[in-house]
Amino acid sequence: MMRRIDVAQLQIMHSLSTSDIYMLDLDINCQERIFDYLTSGDCIHTPQTCLHCVKAFQDLSAMNDGKIRIDGSSEYFKSQFLLFCIGCEFIKDLFIDIGDLSHFLKSLSCSERNSFFASLSKKLKSMNNLEQVQFFLFGELHKTWNMELFEESLLSLKELPKLRSVIIDVDGCSVKNILHLKRLEKITFRHKVSLYDLIGCCKANKNLQALHVNKLMILAQTQLTDIIAYCNKLEELHFEAEGTDYADLARLPNLKKLVVSATSCGSLFELFKALGKAQQLQYLPIIGKVSPDDIEEIVGIKSLRHLSCCFSDMQCIEQLSSLTELEVLEINIDKCDIIPPALLNVLKACKLLRVLFIQGPVWVKDFLNSAREVLQEVRNPLEQKPLQVKIVALDWFISELEDNFLVASIQRPACYDNDESPPQGCFNFKFKF
Questions:
Q1: pLDDT at position 182
Q2: Minimal CA–CA distance to 194: which of 178, 177, 213, 209?
Q3: How far are the Cα atoms of 143, 153, 209, 408, 417 from residue 115, in angstroms, in the given order?
Q4: What is the DSSP letter of 386?
Q5: N or C: which end of the chain has fewer CB within 10 A?
Q6: Could you tell me which SUPFAM superfamilies the record lists for this protein (predicted)?
């Protein structure tokens, strides 16, 4: 029978080394409390040597929220990997920095590295609660890194019942083993991937709802629209690719969110026109500037709830008044230092607008006063919350404004800090969303 040890005794144990404590002397409540008195290193090593404390450690560890990051310097990386090994069956979200992993393995022999990947594969296979896995490369790979061993370990994910999201940002990593995953609902490739492989991933995952591709290679005899046949449930698409005509993407039957680059893509005019006919798109962030012709088609998408873009012609802003279902509007103003008065007409027409974000820098004081007057005309503060306005502004003496109709948060341009007035040349400072 196990001997009970109270909290007072635990405090005495705090002065003892881990080797002086017989862990089986502790009842289950004290096993949980013991971790309050151990160093971070001992917290990890204790469950490794005492299986009786594994459950208590898992309940108290950082994996309580189901997330773990394996990255950092070699010693920290080792500690995080040990945490992963102890609680892998409870993890829901796994993040691994492949660059840090490669440097962690550099001191191991070839056979030891093979053994490590075998162990990693075994642990991955046991992660029955894993919902999302992320592989990133923030630094550089060590020269001893074996990409093929890593890619083979990805096969261990194929039978996991709850895995729904995979994010890969590792240059040079093949996605061929991702083709064996059949239950994914979200795929994100931030490294370069061929359209041929992307089509294979879509074909294998019939329930795919979100697809993000940052660097897409469209090879001969393939088109981005080739994914349509395999993406009947796709709601969110983010791509950057060279091309001339993506109008067929509007045929995706459930597409709600589309993020496109107006700089890397060819003409998007036909795409916007087709989306206007479909009338199902709700979220449209556009990277880069849109032309007046594009705006004419965009305002035809009456279903839009969220629009984000930069105008090549500020006169186009007034056309947004026809998007009466808008709830969020983000615009970039980089050719002038004032907010176009036409934006007031947008506020008047778009009565459902909740958030207005203006990237400047611009002068805002007169605009805010005028905006408040417009909102007082068209809004009932008893039925609607105040409009949230976020602006990068040149009015360095203003930080916040708030009343029943408008809540404004004013951010100073990053190009000056403590000056009493904006410096010359600041007006055309470039900002990114």
A1: 92
A2: 213
A3: 19, 12, 36, 57, 53
A4: P
A5: N
A6: RNI-like
The residue from 163, 183, 203 where one domain ends is: 183
Q: What is the pTM of this model?
A: 0.78
- Count CA atoms within 13 Å of residue 151 on its CB side: 14
Q: How far is CA 348 from CA 42, 175, 291, 319, 323, in A?
A: 63, 49, 24, 13, 11
Distance CA 191, CA 240 (A): 11
Pair (75, 179) in one structural domain? yes
CA 283-284-285 angle, 5° bins = 120
DSSP letter for each residue of 331-363: EE--S-SB--THHHHHHHH-TT--EEEEEEEEB
Buried b (16+ CB within 10 A) or exposed e, 367-386: bbeebbebbeeebeeeebeb
State the residue for tokens 């990409």: 147
Distance in angstroms (rounded) separating the CA atoms of residues 173 and 430: 34
User: 433 and 331, same structural domain?
Assistant: yes
- Helix and strand tally (H, E) in the chain? 13, 15
Distance CA 248, CA 352 (A): 30
Q: What is the tally of structural domains in the chain? A: 3
What the block records as the tokens of 380 is: 């009932």
Task: Examine the fold and report which residue of 60, 80, 96 is the final residue of a domain before the chain moves on.
Answer: 60
Mean pLDDT value across residues 62-69: 73
Q: Phi and psi (nearest 5°) for 94?
A: -115, 130
1 contact partners, CB below 8 Å, separation of at least 6 = none
Which phi and psi (to 5°) does residue 283 adopt? -130, 120
* Phi-psi group of 66: left, alpha or beta (phi > 0 → left; psi -120 to 50 → alpha; rest → beta): left
AA letter at 150 = F
Residue 136 sits in which domain range? 64-183
The pLDDT score that the predictor gives to residue 324 is 96
